[in-house]
Design goal:
The chain has 17 helices and no strands.
Amino acid sequence: MEKSRLQAYMNLIRELLLCPSGEEWEILRANGELVDAQLIELMEKVAIRAEEKGAEGTVAFLRDLGKRLAATINQNNQDEDSESPSDYLRLVETLLHCESGLEPEILREHKDLIDTRLVMTLRQVAGILAEIGEGNASVYLHSIADPLAEALENASSDAIAPAYLDLLGELLRVTANTQGDKKAVYDILKQHLAYLDMGFVQALDDWATATIFSSKPHIAYLIAEDIVNFSLLVLDFPEGDRKCNVEIAIAGFESALRAFRRDRNPEKWAEVQVHIGDAYQQRLLGERGINLEVAIECYRASLEIYEADTYPQECAQIHSLLSNVYENRIHGDKTDNLQIAIAYLRSAWEILTLLHTVASKNTGDRIQE
């Protein structure tokens, strides 16, 4: 080893040992050309000397850091034909320093790097950050890695097809920019009918899972709103494969529930439950009887929020929808189902009548005043 390079390694190790807690990873990134097997070997030699002197803290720090770096280097060397390890590290660094809310766009711009190696790199860097006291940064990277790993595991291939991602991105941008203008969205759908298939369903589910879970809550909320608005449009889209259109809508609605939590966004949660119920009533795949049971459960779930005294209009609408489902229900006794359907319809009528009476009384009181 050249004397100058040896000195550079030793200077780097000394800088790592003396720097303020939390700056170690910044130093390693700034000296990326020195992060290799020889650095790890020298770190171990320094650790041995520190061990002889009883400096247990130094020993633990160097060996833990060396182990993390070795794991990264070994994994990156397994496939010389794939993207450079530095590409993954640069992406991780970009995510660490980006403005809050830009994570989804950054991941989309680097979709060629979204694979199991990125997940591993995110987790390894998170581990290093945790070891050097950067707990918040470590948790942040895990919040990106975990949903990505889930999405990759559930995907039918190692990566989402770029054509689906491009189309999905365009559709959601237009939906957001036009506030869900039907003509604008339908014009795009008509040009890409061949892509409205089960592959698009999977792409939407995978992308939404990864993006919503890796975004800050307020950003995830906005993304979910766009997904719901798009799903409502595609549910009513008159062209293409009808059964796939419904599946796309269901995937969109269900993914939105990852952002609209019942405890934090009860009204949105209930609204999406109603949309899912509507979609399952129209679903062409699966057993018809089971689809209707899912619709019933979704409508009933929404009534946990849409109670008659606080949301009379919504409650009446859902009772009317339940009446329709029970009228067509396949499971259960037909006579019982019809009686339940009549009861729900009567309830809807009573709620609306009371609402109209109260509204008329309030109008009359204002006139008298």
